[in-house]
């Protein structure tokens, strides 16, 4: 009873405006998103270098293991191109080579699929109500495969304390069989309670789908599937908890960020889609710095850019001609480094 009262009292104090601060001089973590790994030949994902995924993921692990300042690694969804048993086991084995702890949230490809949007649309989300025929392992199996990597139990959302004084919260934004994201009422209530219960810790929230528009196309129909359809409800929960510092997502495939209230909403580039990169994030009490690190150059990078520019989903939404090519390359290859002054954002 005394312990409950103590936590309740702490929550009241922090809710009154006290914002927890980072306890370490520097915290460094990496974000791996959209690797689209497959151990089975012939699997394809639009714009992704699935046939080179093992090379890219192995390079990422080797590169991260060479860094002596890395505290943890976040996998922000779409680790897999398809969750067949061999690909799942092999991808898990590659991640097991990481020296730093890794924490996983699922993406729309991390289950049977692939997820689709059909031309014939139904409902407010503009997506088909019928899931595609299952062709891979159930996402429940993927969740159990990554137990201990944030995940604990049967749910796809989780919370982990990363000492000292840092909280990681993983959200499950996936709707099986669909590309667009959603966070249901049960998970929203859990999120609200979890952030309140850990109000003394700085929180970083991990999700696959976007929670704020990062490009004008996010607010139309073209890229609606990159977003959580009830993102405003999720933001309402996040923004009433002053301990939330950052939200990290991985579905957009480009590096970008937006400040909403006192939260930095960061999206990371794709390991498997040009520019074939991961994010390195450094946090200090004074600033948050995000730098994307390329994993390939030469012929592989050239082929990846050509595949991106041949993509209907990504290149096809820009105007035809050289100006459209330039706009697409600038978006996906931009924001090499961004710095956010935390005292100004979180006074």
What does this structure look like?
The protein has a single domain (2-345), classed as 4-Layer Sandwich (Purple Acid Phosphatase, chain A, domain 2), CATH 3.60.21. A hairpin with a 3-residue loop joins strand 10 and strand 11 (287-294). Helix 5 (185-197) packs parallel to helix 6. It starts with a helix and ends with a helix. The longest helix is centred in the N-terminal third of the chain and has 14 residues, at 2-15. It is built from nine helices and twelve strands. It has helices at 2-15, 53-65, 85-95, 139-145, 185-197, 231-239, 298-309, 322-333, 342-345; strands spanning 27-32, 72-76, 102-105, 158-162, 166-170, 202-206, 244-253, 256-260, 263-269, 277-283, 287-294, 337-341. It is α/β, with parallel strands linked by helices and 347 residues long. Residues 1-16 and 117-133 have low confidence and may be disordered. The strands form two sheets. A six-stranded mixed β-sheet has the order 3-2-1-10-11-12. Strands 4-5-6-7-9-8 form a six-stranded mixed β-sheet, with helices on one face.
Provide keyphrases for this structure:
alpha/beta; 9 helices; 6-stranded mixed sheet; 21% strand; Purple Acid Phosphatase, chain A, domain 2; globular; disordered N terminus; 347 residues
Secondary structure topology:
Blueprint lengths: L1 H14 L11 E6 L20 H13 L6 E5 L8 H11 L6 E4 L33 H7 L12 E5 L3 E5 L14 H13 L4 E5 L24 H9 L4 E10 L2 E5 L2 E7 L7 E7 L3 E8 L3 H12 L12 H12 L3 E5 H4 L2
Helix pairs in contact: 5-6
Low-confidence stretches: 1-16, 117-133
What would CATH call the architecture? 4-Layer Sandwich
| Average residue pLDDT | 89
CATH topology: Purple Acid Phosphatase, chain A, domain 2
Helical content, roughly? 25-40%
Beta-strand fraction estimate: 15-25%
- Strand arrangement, major sheet: 3-2-1-10-11-12
Straight-line distance between termini: 34 Å
In terms of quaternary structure, the protein is single chain
């Amino acid at each position: 009873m005394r312990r409950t009262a103590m936590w309740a009292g702490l929550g009241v104090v922090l809710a009154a405006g006290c914002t927890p601060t980072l306890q370490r001089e520097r915290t460094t973590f990496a974000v791996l998103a959209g690797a689209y790994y497959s151990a089975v030949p012939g699997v394809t994902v639009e714009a992704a270098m699935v046939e080179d995924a093992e090379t890219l993921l192995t390079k990422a692990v080797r590169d991260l293991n060479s860094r002596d300042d890395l505290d943890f690694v976040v996998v922000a969804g779409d680790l897999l191109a398809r969750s067949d048993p061999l690909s799942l086991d092999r991808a898990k084995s590659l991640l097991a080579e990481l020296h730093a702890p890794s924490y996983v949230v699922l993406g729309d490809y991390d289950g049977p699929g692939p997820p689709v949007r059909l031309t014939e649309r139904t409902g407010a989300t503009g997506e088909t109500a019928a899931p595609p025929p299952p062709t891979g392992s159930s996402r429940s199996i993927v969740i159990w495969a990554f137990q201990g990597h944030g995940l604990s139990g049967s749910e796809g959302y989780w919370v982990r304390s990363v000492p000292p004084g840092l909280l990681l919260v993983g959200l499950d934004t996936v709707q099986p069989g669909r590309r667009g994201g959603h966070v249901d009422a049960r998970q929203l209530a859990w999120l609200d309670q979890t952030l309140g219960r850990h109000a003394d810790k700085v929180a970083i929230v991990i999700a696959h789908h976007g929670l704020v528009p990062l490009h004008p196309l996010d607010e139309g129909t073209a890229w609606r599937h990159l977003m959580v359809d009830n993102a405003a409800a999720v933001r309402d929960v996040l923004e009433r908890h002053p301990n939330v510092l950052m939200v990290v997502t991985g579905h957009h495939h480009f590096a970008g960020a937006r400040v909403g209230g006192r939260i930095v909403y960061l999206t990371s580039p794709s390991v498997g889609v040009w520019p074939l990169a991961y994010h390195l994030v450094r946090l200090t009490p004074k600033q948050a710095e995000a730098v994307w690190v390329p994993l390939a150059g030469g012929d592989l990078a050239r082929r990846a850019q050509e595949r991106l520019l041949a993509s209907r989903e990504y290149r096809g939404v820009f105007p035809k001609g050289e100006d459209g090519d330039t706009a697409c390359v600038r978006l996906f290859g931009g924001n090499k480094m961004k710095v956010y002054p935390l005292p100004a954002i979180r006074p």
